[in-house]
Amino acid sequence: MSERYVTLAEVRDFLTEEHGKRELLTSQKAAMEHARAVCAVSSEDSRKIAEEVRAVENVTDYTAAKIADLLPRYPEDVRAIFSKERLTVEPETISRIIEVVGKYL
Question: What integer pLDDT is reported at residue 84 of this predicted model?
Fold first, then answer.
């Protein structure tokens, strides 16, 4: 078995599919409802966003998933995502990330 980071949109689709097959746990239902409420893009688009931003310098799999979940539109939003990584992000990197996200909004 392998592990990978998934976006919230992918979680939403997975839990919705599972809900059609069987009864979900209370925590799973809550996660599904949260994902439905906050996801602004399809799971396909979220995967594309994550894939495209992974090609940008200093973007890890974790950070790519966060970018696809939060869809940052402003430099401050991008810096907040990277603050956990304790990296200083170059303005060109920030611009590229915002550009990629903007294509899917």
Answer: 83
